Amino acid sequence: PDSTFTADALNKIGMTVYLSTTLNTGHFHGRGNETIVLPVLARDEESQATTQESMFNFVRISDGGPARHEGPRSEVAVVASIGQEVLGDSTAIDWSALQEHDRIREAIAAVIPGYEPVKEVGKSKKEFYIAGRTLHKPTFSTRNGRAQFHVGDLPGLKGAPNQLRLMTIRSEGQFNTVVYEEEDLYRGQERRDVILMHKDDIERMNLQVNQPVTVRSEIGQLDNILVRPIDIRAGNAAMYYPEANVLVPRISDAKSKTPSFKCIAVTIIPGQTNPRLPVLAQV
Question: Which whole number is the average pLDDT over 221-229?
């Protein structure tokens, strides 16, 4: 959140080193005194099988595929080679052996309870659920063994009548903050510099589809953002991050410690209709 504040803070760092699959805004904002970008392969470009844990406690395996560019190595190869060059044999860690993914999985299996099957997954290709994390019976670790439900009060809606509540989202062609393509197949958008609004809000604010506007919050603004209609509840809007992070205050919720990425009060300041852009049908 608050990318202007964040960039100023990161500028005070002496040196930053990135292992990155694709260039992104973090490489250009808040670089400190020296920034080193080490290109690495994405997991679907790896020559060795990689494993990933899903949010459902399922460990899956990926066999990788062809690399997009010549030159980049895997993250494992980069880190292991640095460890070997800097530390050599001065520690108990065999850095040269850790070039092999299977050896890393052996270490994980020996250390983390429930992860024992990962030791053989590179050879067996047998994916698995992590033991002890999935509930198969309706028994919970409470005093009476039953689930406990609590009713929470909903907060009031944020923003004045002339404002919208903005949520930031990512596109289909995006992984976290790394944008691989401008198009968003999920929402039928061919570009990212847009604000997605309900058609009633567009009419209420006397805006037109593809009209450039300024979107302003309490801590920042974005100019020349195009108005686009989408099926979203009136009074709300959506924009893509990380571009829209400049609008997100860095104040966090007291309990979750999470910034309000899904509820930012913003004001829309109209600009002139852009005659060079086609007016899209409102669907």
Answer: 97
Helices (H), 116-204: 121-124, 199-204
Torsion of CA 193, 197, 199, 200, to 10 degrees: -140
**Nearest alpha carbon to residue 259 among 280, 242, 279, 277:** 242
* CA angle, residues 226, 228, 233, in degrees to nearest 5: 130
pLDDT in tens, 19-67: 999 888 778 887 888 999 999 998 889 999 999 998 888 999 988 888 8
- Give the 3-state secondary structure of residue 171: coil
Residues contacting 243, CB < 8 A, separation 6+: 25, 192, 193, 222
d(CA 39, CA 22): 7
Alpha carbons within 13 A on the beta-carbon side of 213: 23
Phi, psi (5° rounding) for residue 206?
Answer: 55, 45
DSSP category for residue 259: B
Q: How far apart are CA 283 and CA 264, in angstroms?
A: 25
